[in-house]
Amino acid sequence: MEPIEANGLEFIPISSGSSWLGSDKGGWIYASQRPRYEVRLPSYYIMKKPLTRGQVARLLDEDEAPDEPDEPMTGLTINEIHALREAIESNLEEESLDVRLPSFPEWNHASEQIELNPGIVEILSDAAATSHRGGMMDGRPRPIETNGPLQHHRLAVEMHPRKSGTFATSNIPVDRPLPNTVFRFVLSPPRTEPPRRVPKSADVLGNLRTEIIWTTLLGIIPSFLIPVIRGFGTYAIDGWANLLFGGLVAGFVTGAIWRPRRPSISYEEGVQESEDSLAASVSQ
User: Can you name the residues that pair with 172 across neighbouring β-strands?
Assistant: First the structure.
């Protein structure tokens, strides 16, 4: 695969492949990063750098050259980004490829080959979500499935200001200008087959059973054993309510940072969009 140029923008090729997204850590502070799941991507093209001020001016046929034309263009709304996408698409020779912002799987798969500036926030095409439940397993963008305020939010990647290559995902509003937000485009083959998604439901009973077991082992039992070991055995009976409450609190605290790892979801374990109503529960 060779690089592609469209409207003066260079897109570098990214080979097809499989990658894993998310975390399988069990603590509840990792809930937004679960479940860990496999994504299988076709080959596609992505801009090595975010769009610059000069490139945006050229795409919009502006007469005057902007100040600092090589600096990344920041603070555009999603409607302005769509206008730029249409400008690229109208002159694209490769009609078999879609022009859009990258999905998170595409961005992550290409992250070692593209330029990542520290401290920037890059807008992606995925709809905002609270976890990976319902995520797309073929790399296509996650669709907007809400009519609430989150319909005006998109997933974004926030780069660490000092640690190179370190990033976190967040949901940001895209209906108004925000400082320090940049974007780049991909040329990606359209997905015509029914989407394969991470199951939307979790094994609630299994998760509850795990939580009861570990709260008992790490919180309640030690709470009662401590006064017995220290020679205050009668307090284990007389003060059982206080000890039970203390054990529950200790169990909650341990649950925040540690629980057994949760199952990862392979591509084959995903469900077709039409089968969502029949999807089996998979532990979050």
Answer: 154
